[in-house]
Amino acid sequence: MTDSSDVSMTDTFLVGKLLLAMPNMGDSRFQKAVIFMCAHDDKGSMGLVINNPLPGVEFSELVAQLNVANDDVDEDILYSLQVLSGGPVESGRGFVLHSADFAQKDTVRVKSDIHVTGTLDALREIVQGRGPEQMLFVLGYAGWSPGQLEQEIQDNAWLITDASADLVFGVDAARKWENAIQRMGVNPAMLSGAAGRA
């Protein structure tokens, strides 16, 4: 676990990490949120919530609305890929968080084994079965202005932990928060929302 007092606006160490919402999270949109951090610098921070399914939104319907499918579609992907709410910012903008076996011109390598792509071309490849082996599809993102996330960390709103591909892609959305906390060696029932210093 990282000492939150060491977080500065110029650090980029949060990139590729997970933020885990603490029980005292004041913003109900982030209760038990697990956020994969894509960017963090002196201009602000950006991450994708990876454990919040969007009720009533089907990937197949979204693909039809965007008109990215043709006759050559992978039915398994079309009807099994879950749509997640990546956060409240630009909720109509889509991102594919995926394994390193897929890359396009606009793909961003966040970690050696976890990349992100946000183009319609990526969706076309995925729908046709030529996408990554592991992936999550999210709409929207979580964003922070300069210094905002650092203050939230100091206020004990977030835990920081390493992101692993098996946790990001392999654990069901409903169990990601608890699983991530347990991997840190922490009993979720013992977490306190009170901030303090040792």
UniProtKB/TrEMBL annotation:
InterPro entries the record matches: AlgH-like (IPR003774)
One GO term describing the cellular component: cytosol
Transmembrane spans: none
One Pfam entry name: DUF179
Source organism, top-level taxon: Bacteria
Matching PANTHER family: UNCHARACTERIZED PROTEIN YQGE, UPF0301 PROTEIN YQGE
Family named by the database record: Belongs to the UPF0301 (AlgH) family.
Protein name: UPF0301 protein MICA_2294
